[in-house]
Sequence to fold (430 residues):
Amino acid sequence: MPTRRGMAAAAALAAGVAVLLPLAGPAGAADQQAAGDIVTYTVTGLDSVAERTAVARSGVDVLSAEHGTMTVRATQEQAAELRAAGHELITMADVRKQLRELSAAKKPGDFPEDDADYHNYDEMVAEITKAAEDHGDLVSISSIGTSYEGRDIPLVKISDNVDTDEDEPEVLFTCNMHAREHLTTEMCLRIINRYTDDYASDEKIKALVDTAEIWVVPQVNPDGIEYDIATGEYQGWRKSRKPNEGSSAVGTDINRNFSYQWGCCNGSSGNPASETYRGAEALDQPESKQITEFVDSRVVDGEQQIKGHIDFHTFSELVLWPYGYTTDDTDEGMTEEEAARFRDVGTRMAETNGYTPQQSSDLYITDGDINDWMWGEHKILSFCFEMYPSSGGIDGFYPPDEVIERETSRNDEAVEILLEEVGAGGDTTG
Ligand SMILES: [Zn+2]
Fold:
């Protein structure tokens, strides 16, 4: 039904204006930030550097900036100026209304009935367990460790002779590090199901599985995911659920918590209430720390076995590559040749899914993200995909389940390209 989605934001975007909307859900940090007349807003639809610079120069306090979105704290006067400059401000009441509409018929602890095809944590575990039962020769399930609240974080391996550590290039796919980006769990589950269910019938899939070891973490942030769907209403939650000492604001942006150039370059926030809070120190979140420990453990005889990586997010329809911490194309650990390879592979993948390819920092500086760590520490060809939709407000994080098949299969070829790029499938394609 048409009223389910964020109509106000959609209408504003259709009219070509940027949208300001307060950031968090009812239980979010924005409630606590309404000190005096200063209110936290998210500004979306800022697609050009000039637009973003103009907002930053208006004097507002920029809490975070990611892709087409900025989160700012603005006085009523500044908000009025932004309105006068053509930006539309959406009130907190409107965002809550959007989240309520998105949550229609939503049961506590699960997705709305209309969106039942999305997998919550237990359903994700059941799905990968079924894959292992159906394809015991191709699938093994282990764990990278437990989340802050004690949930197991499953790690799926797919390969022929899956119980043997063969000398084959390895690729890692990680999903749902940001809690509300539920479409990405479906992306990782698609990879798992496709590379197992289609093994017997699809020659190319068979060749890739036979010549590679594929690792998948379908839910990096299970605590945040479950929190986002815990009540009868979506929370619009992004971060982890680990409390912050000395602050009532909960959670860290796991994708600003990695240790390569952590907090170096104004690409994250030191404010625990921020959506891009980097944590009190690098890798102080169990989720990020255990990913790094797993990847570190794949150094065999001095050589990192994992050669390629995609971390799936929503939304904006982008293919992004390191570095995020600097706008320079090349820097320490990134030669011109290496930067050209990222651009080449990223562009080829984007040609298959219709996303926009660019270096991460072409949008905004980010520091402490997983892709910079993967490349900076291990020279892993690491990409960030921002999936469907291309734009939107809070509703962009909650597309209807009818799009799952279309929007996950949209990345089938890109996944194949990455596998082939690191040397898999050579027997049949070469
Ligand atoms: Zn994300």
